[in-house]
């Protein structure tokens, strides 16, 4: 059992990282301080955790995980005992167009964090990764924690490399680490380039719904709040040096998921599902598009007692409702207005002077 008190969360303004920060500040009374280190690039938004902006337990630091001096200073100033590492470039299409930034952030950035931890062996380091490191499955079978790595995109390869480096540092230097590999996440506050919010917003604006290839690629879907809870279980109770797969037990083809979204948007907006379905457009497949991912999450269920709280139908309904009710958040993301929010709310706090990358 570990009892984190002062936690450094990297990438805590991103989709999954912010869900974890909200989880910590909402539910975990034992946590005294959450330091959120985020570079605030295009997919990050402090608005994701704006409800805690004035909470004395929360500090937002605009900075780079590759800045070892900064990370070391934060560890000392805030007596950090646990680092949970979300920060990553994560969009597969972007990795195909420009892989070098994925190597710099996901591989080099992780190594620089590990160097800080190596100088502080009392820290526990949790590394958040993806099921994409395992490659593509056929129609049968599941990814387990011992599945051979076979990444098929620059993004997946960069995450695979970072996973190996975390394990290597733990083995070589005796660091306290845990790792997790998750399936596809969905839920509130997800950047609009990702599948679920993209489809919801396109339906609301009567824009085409692009479907790669034949639409029969299969993914397992996990609600982001369930993922946050799973990470807490691993951080506090997971065996040192071990990996846990986190899944939602909700496999769907892309077409099936899109039809579910169409039906739910139609139901909640009182529009025609047939009319929304007519917006579907089959487009050229993504290069190297993996056919199927599916997670075997028996280990985390058996050893740590974690099971997802959300079934897919209920989770999708709640997600659609959130996007319908949060048009202001969507507009601020699309316009880049969050930069003014940063200046107004964090200008006098522990934020660096670097300008966020425009969205």
Automatic annotation (TrEMBL):
InterPro entries: dTDP_Gluc_deHydtase, NAD(P)-bd_dom, NAD(P)-bd_dom_sf, Sc_DH/Rdtase_CS. SUPFAM superfamilies: NAD(P)-binding Rossmann-fold domains. It holds the Pfam family GDP_Man_Dehyd. Keywords: Lyase, NAD. Its EC number is 4.2.1.46. Belongs to the NAD(P)-dependent epimerase/dehydratase family. dTDP-glucose dehydratase subfamily. This is dTDP-glucose 4,6-dehydratase. The gene is rfbB.
